[in-house]
Amino acid sequence: MPKVRIQVTIRDDIVKWMDKQVETRKYASRSPSIEYAVLQLMQNENKRN
Fold this sequence. Notes:
This protein is an all-alpha fold. The protein has one domain. The protein has helices spanning 12-23, 30-48. The two termini are 24 Å apart. The model has no long low-confidence stretch (mean pLDDT 95).
C-alpha cells in the first residue's frame, strides 16, 4: 500500500521511548513504530464497533 509523508508533534518522553525501541532494533525507525501504534488503535476501535 502506498505511504504518505506526514508531520506530527509528539511528547518528548514518547520520542525518547521510540528511539530506544529503534536502538534495540524492535523497529527499523520511528515511522514503523508510529505506524504500528496507529494500526493497533484502528484494530481496537474496529473491535468496539
